[in-house]
Design goal:
Elements (H helix, E strand, L loop, with lengths): L2 H5 L1 H7 L1 H20 L11 E2 L11 E6 L16 H18 L3 E4 L9 H10 L4 E8 L9 E6 L4 H16 L4 E7 L4 H4 L5 E8 L3 H8 L1 H24 L2
Parallel strand pairs: 2-3, 2-4, 4-7, 5-6
Antiparallel strand pairs: 1-3, 5-7
Helix pairs in contact: 3-5, 4-9, 6-9, 8-9
Zinc ion binds next to loops.
């Protein structure tokens, strides 16, 4: 996540209002089709549906949100790698892993394109998601901080905190260093506006050479996806069994 997410929420709302209206219509149609039958996805649409999940874990939908995209690159590493490229790679890697575990999911984008924050949230809210997971990368210019951070909104439900803890645990199982699991004091649109439990995963610091290595490697990105998928599955299992 970079400053764009935090500071330009209102500008984004105004700038993309027209686009959101168009997508809202598409989403309403999709929401209906998700329940009853396989969904045919238009190529230009940013949402990817796993059609094999008619009998998913208790029908619970997880929305995966690769941060930034298109004209919004997010932060970047000293090697020139953009945050939007890393988040998309991990999001794409998550898809087959969730599919394997029979998790019903949507991606807010599956290519390098701009998707507004309201539209990302609308995908979760209109489809009555059970969990929203936003993928980002950190930066810190003054200290060599490293490791992943899982964030939930201040005052969030216990389910959001549980999801954050389990995703952190999943990442630790894949040998990533946990920088923090914490409530966010700032108002982050995707955490504040989603109706369901929501977490934001800062997968590492692009300002740190150690983190940058795994963030930019195919192997590291896949390992991140494995850890996050593990946490998501553990969360769904926990909710399903009421533990
Ligand atoms: Zn970001």
């Amino acid at each position: 996540m970079n400053r764009v997410v935090f500071f330009s929420v209102m500008a984004l709302v105004a700038a993309v209002a027209g686009r959101s209206v168009v997508h809202s219509t598409i989403l309403n149609r999709r929401a209906a089709s998700l329940v009853n039958r396989p969904t045919v996805i238009r190529q230009h649409n940013p949402i990817q549906v796993d059609r094999s999940k008619a009998r998913s874990r208790r029908g619970m939908l997880v929305v995966i949100d690769p941060g930034h995209g298109g004209s919004d690159p997010g932060t970047h590493g000293p090697n020139g790698m953009d945050e939007k490229t890393v988040t998309l790679a991990v999001g794409r890697d998550l898809a087959p892993l969730l599919k394997r575990d029979r998790v019903h999911f949507l991606l807010t984008r599956d290519k390098d394109e701009y998707v507004s924050l309201p539209h990302r949230v609308a995908i979760a809210n209109r489809n009555h998601a059970a969990l929203f997971v936003s993928l980002h990368c950190d930066e810190y210019s003054h200290q060599q901080m490293h490791g992943f951070t899982v964030i939930y909104a201040q005052g969030a439900s216990s389910d959001s905190r549980l999801a954050a803890r389990l995703i952190a645990k999943g990442l630790e199982k894949k040998h990533f260093f946990c920088h923090a699991v914490r409530a966010e004091v700032r108002h982050l649109y995707v955490l504040d506006k989603t109706n369901c439990p929501a977490v934001l995963v800062e997968m590492g610091f692009m300002s740190d050479p150690r983190d940058l290595r795994y963030l930019c490697s195919t192997r590291g990105q896949h390992r991140l996806a494995q850890g996050i998928a593990r946490g998501i599955v553990a969360y769904l299992h926990s909710v399903k069994h009421g533990s």
